[in-house]
Design goal:
Helix content is 84%, strand content 0%. Helix 2 packs antiparallel against helix 3 and helix 3 runs antiparallel to helix 4. The chain is globular and about 50 Å long.
């Protein structure tokens, strides 16, 4: 758990760096591409956390964490700008922030804790990888060609 805490802290710094350095480029990507990268990063992070037995090798997962969340935050607002009328953008961005940082974080933490208790922490990461894999497959369907 100590190594995991360090990895998450380092990954948060990498997430910030990804947004600062690549934010403009990420915002110009087609939505499908950006969100596919997010989902595939989740797959990679989950599989590394599941498969790796050496604590120091878990540090590899922080790269994918940084990409996952860096891309998510750098692409969410431009995507909302594409799909929401300008007069409703403030409300849409407020809802996005409330859901992603509040309700989803709380529900995800609760569900993750329950699944971790039920299946074990290591297997929780396999479950995450499988869910993100399904999301990767569904990404082309979830994002219309017109907007992307």
């Amino acid at each position: 758990m100590g190594v995991l805490s360090i990895v998450i802290s380092a990954a948060t710094l990498l997430e910030w760096a990804v947004m600062v350095v690549f934010g403009g480029k990420i915002a110009r990507l087609p939505s499908r591409t950006a969100f596919l990268i997010i989902a595939l990063s989740g797959v990679c992070k989950g599989l590394i956390m599941y498969a790796v037995q050496q604590p120091l090798l878990i540090l590899l997962s922080f790269v994918f964490h940084g990409i996952w969340y860096g891309f998510l935050w750098a692409s969410a607002t431009p995507y909302l700008n594409q799909i929401i009328p300008r007069k409703n953008l403030t409300v849409a961005q407020s809802i996005w922030t409330l859901l992603s940082s509040g309700i989803a974080a709380a529900a995800g933490s609760f569900a993750g804790g329950q699944l971790g208790e039920l299946f074990g922490l290591r297997n929780l990461f396999l479950i995450i990888a499988l869910l993100m894999g399904m999301l990767s497959v569904m990404t082309p369907v979830l994002f219309s060609k017109k907007i992307s």
